[in-house]
Amino acid sequence: MFVLETTQTDGIAQLSYLIGDTSTGKAAVIDPRTDVDIYLQTARKHGLSITHIFETHIHADFMSGSRSLADRAGSAEIYLSGEDADYKFDGVKVHCGDQFDFGSFTLTARHTPGHTSEHLAFELAEAKHPEMPHAVFTGDSLFVSSAGRPDILGNDQAETLAKQLYETLYNYFLKLEEYVVVYPGHGAGSACGADIGDRLVSTIGYERRTNKSLHFPAFEEFRSFVVDDAPPVPVHYPHLKAVNAAGAELLHRLPTVPALPPSEFRAAGREPGVTIVDTRSMLAFGGGHVPGAINIGDRPELSPWIAQMVDPEQRLLLVVGDDTDVDQITRMIIRVGLTKFAGYLGGGMKAWETSGLPLQVLPQVSVHELHDDLQNGSHFQILDVRSPEEWNAGHVPHAQHQFVADMRQRITGLNKDKPIATYCASGYRANIAASLMQSRGFKHVHNVPGSWSAWTAAGFPVEK
Q1: 228: which DSSP letter?
Q2: Taking 80 as the threshold, does the pLDDT of residue 378 lie above it?
Q3: Which residues pair with 120 in a beta bridge?
């Protein structure tokens, strides 16, 4: 029996695949994430042995689990692109046209550069008709309603990769049969492509008709669309590229995150090279938190945002809503390559409060209060921390703009002693920004819950 199971990892919007044949007992995993238990459990459920682990390319947005899965699976080999690849660890080199037999089906590698130069896709076909693929695992080359961005390696390589991507899309993918099913490496929410669609699968025929990336007869127009109009590259991508090229560390289990009593937690927070991250909700954080903490709430998007805001060399001290949340939060953090933990606050903020230790608050200001303040001459510095695209589409009158992802490096143009109100789309990113500013000495920072969504829902004026 043929088996195909998709693992969707929320937050980083990553899609990985286990494909197997129960008659031979062999299975392959394509692009495994860091915490690999899910693949082992899936294989056992179907009575399969993971024998092949395929990497479509050197990933930039999550830490690869290939080495950990190979170590845990025992008999599995890692298969890496041999097409202009810069891997620093051992694996079987794969070239365009290489074919792998699993019994009832075959996988055939195709070189699909553009997102990266070494990128591979894998065609899935019945063993008796390997020349007639009925599906293709596209990695980060072709997405639902989008395509892989060619600029993650920097502007100096973007031009060459854009040309390669154009060739890949128009001279490979568009020449496949319309019925071929597309299994991409990411879903909606990933920064590896612009405006990726919500559906997890598609077909070549559907993408031919609806995907904007496939509607440019001339390269120059395509280049402008995928390079000039692309959102900013997340700052943690170069680090993760280097980690995955070198070979991500083996993780036999989750890193140990010890529970620390409040006094020890406070002492650890004063050590150099430590960042305190409070994962509670914005309102809980606003009501009282450990001084100097930044707030990145326990939601799926914690993964990409902690990677954006925290240096990977920092040791993390965590504050969680409940001690039982620690393991799940740790999983979300290690997926983006942060593996150094100093501990977590045992007993949470209740233990901190009853120990008589100092509290810091982050005031919240409603959109109605902010609107009234604007009407009366505005004593707030209003800071929009959304992406440039969101800002350009409309913003609160008299607001200033700084994208929150850039604020880890610099915060400019604001008076530390004057009240500041931060907003984003919903308040999540705004609270990250506000807590970061507060940790850096801004004295009167406020967050706007509901933020832009609440502002527009209330019918307040919009400036462009």
Answers
A1: I
A2: no
A3: 111
Whole-angstrom distance, CA of residue 173 vs CA of residue 208: 9
pLDDT tens digits, 339-371: 999 999 999 999 999 999 999 999 999 999 999
Instruction: End-to-end CA distance of the chain: give it in Å, rounded.
Output: 57
Domain with CATH 3.40.250.10 in the chain: 259-354, 367-457
Model pLDDT, residue 221: 94
Asked if 52 contacts 29 with a C-beta cutoff of 8 angstroms, the reply is yes
Instruction: Please say whether the beta carbons of 344 and 275 come within 8 A.
Output: no
Fold of 2-246: Metallo-beta-lactamase; Chain A (3.60.15)
CA distance 70 to 360: 46
Q: What is the pLDDT of residues 167-216, one digit of tens each?
A: 999 999 999 999 999 999 999 999 999 889 999 999 999 999 999 999 99
Helix then strand count (H, E) for the chain reads: 15, 23
Residue 433 has pLDDT above 80, yes or no: yes
Q: Could you name the CATH architecture of 367-457? A: 3-Layer(aba) Sandwich (3.40)
Q: What local confidence, expressed as pLDDT, does residue 207 receive? A: 98
88-102: burial string, b at 16+ Cβ within 10 Å, e else: eeebeebeeebebeb
User: In the CATH hierarchy, which fold is given to the domain comprising 259-354?
Assistant: Oxidized Rhodanese; domain 1 (3.40.250)
Q: pLDDT, tens digit, for every residue of 63-74?
A: 999 999 999 998
Which contacts of 389-395 are long-range, i.e. CB under 8 A and separated by 24 or more positions? 389/231, 390/425, 390/452, 392/464, 393/464, 394/462, 394/463, 394/464, 395/452, 395/462, 395/463, 395/464
d(CA 386, CA 422): 10
CB 165 within 8 A of CB 227: no
Cβ 4 vs Cβ 22: under 8 Å: no
